[in-house]
Every structure is written in C-alpha cells, then in structure tokens.
Amino acid sequence: MSAKILPIKIYPDKILRQKAAKINRLDKKIQRLILDMGKTMLAKEGAGLAAPQVGESIRLIVVNTKNGVLAMINPKITRRSWSKEPGEEGCLSLPDIIGQVKRSKKIKVIYYNEDNKQIKLSAAGLFARVIQHEVDHLNGVLFIDYLKKKGLPAKFREQTLR
User: At which positions is Fe cation bound (predicted)?
Assistant: First the structure.
C-alpha cells in the first residue's frame, strides 16, 4: 500500500475555517491518511500539514522533522512561552503569500502517536512555530489572521479577518 499525494484545499475553501473534530478511534483510515498526508507534505515541500488542508476536518497534523514525518493525533498545546518572536510564514493553502507572524518561542504539547500512546513534548524555535501554525488550522485559524490588513494582497483585504 503506497502513499498518494492528496490535493490541497486552497483558501477560501470553507473547511479551512471549521473547527476540526477530535479523533476517537485510530483505525486503518486514519493510518492511511497519515501516510498520504506525510507524502503530500514532503512532495509540496511543506514544513507541516493539517488534515483540514486535505479535506478531512479531524484533529490530525503531520510535521516535517529531521527524523522524518511526525504525526500528531489530537494535539493540544498546553503551555506557550510568554516570550514571542516574529518569523516568516507561508501556507500550502495560501499559495504565494508570505507574512511575518509573532509566535511563542517555546511550547509544550500533548498528542497521541500512531501507536495510540500519549506523548508530551517540548518544542522550540521553528519546530514550535510549525506546530502552532498547524494546530491553528485545526481551530479554523489561518496565519493571515495575524497579519495587518494593509499588508495583505487585495483579494484578502475585503474579507473579515479574526
């Protein structure tokens, strides 16, 4: 069973603004989705990918790490550092848009892995930024919501940002 590249949902697709549902069972469909999302993220040269971006409104993200694809099921950020730093962000669902976003330098996150084991993880720097960006997707938040309206391309300025 080889993984396949999935189509990416592009803003303003409505699924990108929905709050994703918690995953209650780790079944073959979820395992397959993890493989497909990993392959899609790597093929599109993404740092991370959230399930809503491939049309599944469930709480699942994959992150590109130096050790390979890390799948996080039902990730929950439990702590954010007070200290924040700006960084350049883009998004596969918002092609050709780059913006400076302030995010916490360090976070703590709890999630379930592919073996259904609960993992507690501390992350810093780019790794923390990617997790925050992808968890935002699970809550219907996009990185453009953090940008000043005047810095956005015209097609986004008319739309109400959070």
Answer: 91, 133, 137
